[in-house]
Amino acid sequence: MKILVLGATGQVGFEVCRSIACLGKVYAPGRKELDLSDLPAVEAYLQKTSPNIVINAAAYTQVDKAESEPDLARKLNADLPEILANHSATQGSLLVHYSSDYVYDGNHQSFRKESMEGSPVNRYGETKLQGDLAILHSGCEHLIFRTSWVYSARGKNFMRTMLDLGKQRTELNVVDDQIGSPTPARLIANVTALAAHSGLESGIYHLAPRGHTSWHGFAREIFNVASRESEPLMLTADDINPIPTHQYPTPAKRPLNSRLDTSKLEQALNIQLPEWKTELASTLNEFLEK
Ligand SMILES: NC(=O)c1ccc[n+]([C@@H]2O[C@H](COP(=O)([O-])OP(=O)(O)OC[C@H]3O[C@@H](n4cnc5c(N)ncnc54)[C@H](OP(=O)(O)O)[C@@H]3O)[C@@H](O)[C@H]2O)c1
Q1: Exposure of 90 by Cβ count < 10 A (0-12 exposed, 13-18 middle, 19+ buried)?
Q2: H-helix or E-strand containing 5?
Q3: DSSP 8-state class, residue 260
Q4: Under CATH, to which class is 2-215+245-289 assigned?
Q5: Per-residue confidence at 109, pLDDT binned at 50, 70, 90?
Q6: pLDDT in tens, 170-182
Q7: Domain locations in the chain?
Q8: Which residues line ligand 1 at a C-beta cut-off of 6 Å?
C-alpha cells in the first residue's frame, strides 16, 4: 500500500505520518521536493508515485493573510484538492482531506451538522469550501474531516502562543464570544488512521473533541494545566481578561459559533471522542516534556 502525505511538515501532517506508518509505505515530499502551488508538478508527482491513498494535510492556513492573498489561498485550498480528487477518481484511490469549521458562518446557536450548507464569512473559509465541493463533485472515494481550532506540541498555534505570552506578560485579553472545540493534531491523525484502516464510507465528517469553550476558556485552561506542571509563568488563569470579538479586530471575520456535531463520525467508527480538556492536558504535557 502506497500512501502519499502532503503537508507533512504541518501540525496535522506531522502527526499523520506517525499514525499511518503501520498501514503502508509513506511518501511525504517536503516543499523543496514538491511545491504544491505548482499544480502541473503535483500531477506529475501523482503519475510517478501512483499512491493508493492520498492524505492532503497541506493548506494555506493563514486566515488573516488569505484576505490579501486570495489567489494563493485558492490555489492551495481549492485547486490543489480538485487535482488530487480528479486523480483519485481516475485511479480509484482514496483521498483523505481536512477542512474547517470556517466553511460555516457560525450564525446559529446549535452544533453544526455535516448536512448543513457552508456559508463562509472570510476568504480562507471560501477557499476551503471550494476545495470540499470540488472533491464531492469529482466522485472520488473520499474522507473529508472538518475540524476546528487545531493545535499541537509542534508548529505555530494558540496553545504555544499563549505559553510564550505567559512568560512575558502579567495580563492578557482574550476573546470570549467565539466558541468551539480545540482539536489536537494527534487526535485528527489517530482518527485518520482508524478511518483509513476500517474502510470508513466516503463522506464529510466533523472531527473535534467533545465539549466546547471560548478562546478565553481555552487560554485559562492552558494556564491552569501549565501551572499544575510548574511551568514558570508571569501570570495565572485569573489574569486572562475576557473581551468581545469587536475589541480584537482582525482582517478576516471569524464565525462566532464553531461547534461541530461529531455524532456521525462517532457512530460510523463506533468510538467516543475524548473531552477537549483531557486532550489539552496530554498535548501540553507532551510539549512541556520535549
Ligand atoms: N490550524 C487550524 O486551526 C485548522 C482549523 C481547522 C481546519 N484546519 C485544516 O487542517 C489541515 C491541516 O492544518 P494544519 O494546522 O496542520 O496546517 P499547517 O500546520 O499550517 O501546515 C500546512 C502544511 O501545508 C504545507 N504547504 C503549504 N503551502 C505549501 C506549498 N506551496 N508547497 C508545499 N507545502 C505547502 C506546509 O508546508 P511548509 O511547512 O513548508 O510551510 C505545511 O506542511 C488544513 O487543511 C487546514 O485547513 C486547520
Answers
A1: exposed
A2: strand 2-6
A3: B
A4: alpha beta
A5: confident
A6: 999 999 999 999 9
A7: 2-215+245-289
A8: 7, 9-13, 31, 35-37, 57-59, 61, 76, 98, 100-101, 128, 147-150, 155, 185
